[in-house]
Amino acid sequence: MEGRGLPALGLTAGQRVTGRQMELVFGMLRHPDADRIERELLDDGADPETARLATVLGQPVEEIEARKQTPLLALDFTFRPQASLVVLWALGDEKTRRTIERAHERAVATTLRWLEDEVAQTRWASGRSRAKTPALVVAAFRHYDNRNGFPLLHEHCLIANRVQRPDGSWYALDTVRLYQHVVAADTLYTLTMTTEVCEKLGLATVPREVTPGLRPVMEIAGVDQELIDWSSTRRRRIEDVLEGITDEYVKKHGRLPGERARHGLGWWAAQETRPDKKTPRPLDQLLAWWRVSALLKFKQRMVDGLLQRCQAAGAAIRARVEPWVDTALAADDVAAVVFTVRGIFARRHVLAEARRHLLETLRGQEFTRGLDDYIADAALSRHSRQLTVPQKGRRAPAPDQLTYTADFAWPHRWWIVGTGGKPPRESSRYERARVASLALQNAIRDARILSSARDEAPAAAAPHAVAHPDRDTALPPAQRAAALQAHQQAAMPEEYLEGRTTDAATWLRTPENLERLAALTRAADTRRRAIEDRGDPAADPAGPVDRPRQEHEQHQPPAHDQNQGQGRRS
Fold this sequence. Notes:
Elements: H1 19-28, H2 34-43, H3 48-53, H4 61-66, E1 74-79, H5 83-91, H6 94-119, E2 121-124, E3 129-132, E4 138-145, E5 151-160, E6 163-164, E7 170-173, H7 175-180, H8 182-201, E8 205-208, E9 217-220, H9 225-231, H10 233-253, H11 259-272, H12 283-304, H13 306-320, H14 327-342, H15 347-362, H16 371-383, E10 384-386, E11 404-406, E12 415-416, E13 425-426, H17 429-442, H18 444-456, H19 477-491, H20 494-497, H21 511-532, H22 543-554, H23 560-569
Antiparallel strand pairs: 1-5, 2-3, 2-7, 4-5, 6-7, 8-9, 10-11, 12-13
């Protein structure tokens, strides 16, 4: 059990609970010792209904069902590391496995504390009133394998939909608010756990594109893709089914599915391939079976030398990428990506992107706690425009309930040629977001010069020195921006940057722009042939004197509004 709300129920953190206690709390929303309490009250002469209601946490479930509503008893937050970390945990030695497990436990605890301190709220009076509730009741239980029996370290955190107010009464959680912060909680867990494992074992992360056009996953450098595929049996089955479902969608609609449709098809494919759960087996048996399976497929050298290969790859990356972050550049990148992906956003979206930026930039190296919040606040204050307007006579909205937008240039869509016989696909929101971020880097020099005076004014200090005082503070703003851009390029491996359709240099070669260039070329050839076919100047009714003026008029550029429109589309 976890959470600050346990003492109110007579429980302690880390305590193991029985199946009956789980049934009472998470199945009936009653006190975990309801049987004992109810029995004692009955012995004292209380009537059965009074004794039962004395053990109920808040509104009884029966009253909710009487209104023909389905009560929400709990929320299941599941935390799991990246596939490469799971492989390293399953095939590593005892020390490696314990290091990953301890990092996993601390990351889960850190995320739950953040949910309690920053997110959790209770509501009453039909949801019109809310108050912070930093005291959740959480039952955590760990699984080691997926439904196919292959390694998948993950933690289920079942959060009871009841919290206690200071007056002792129990109310429901604001579950909508919790669900809204799922992504931010997931990025905090991933950043915290990955950073600790990389620091303890001397590893580093590398971006790997799992689905074309979508955000890459920061995996542990040195873990072969074959090992990841070996452990991700569920994913392979889902991809096989998803391909067939996508073909049916194309035949029905005559186009490829968009982003929302892809998510829906992916969920449907996951349900289609979802096998029944098997009887859990002891971890020792699972570890022995995983090792034998990996040895039979990949041989001993590849399995036993896994940690050493990861440490060698991590040392090479750490020697190239310095452990520092420039908050100004991070705020630029975060704001541009969030605006391009969402258009309208809240602080939780910016905070999640700031945590992704730290993991992608530092590549698993340590950072000062609170830097993610600092970057998010900088992105909101410097590059965002608030849309929420406070209304007179009404309570001002909380800071995390405000909505924002930005005024960055909106990158246009383009089509990407398919490979392996697949049809062309439209650029994803994430690819357009990376284009917006790269375009913004070209304007960093000007932005730094304009903001240098503002940076010299008193302002809130960053959680730590994010630049080298002996090197970068002495540089002019333009040179400092160039150094920052070089650091960003070093943080991303060459194999990930080369040949990307998000490179600004390839915009001119998009199919849409190539078609426009071809149309302009054909129009120019048509005008040239028309001039050549006129023949003798004497036969021209305009006369030899008027010909130069006529040819000049034919070569005039298009009207201003047309030229401007083409410039926006290119």
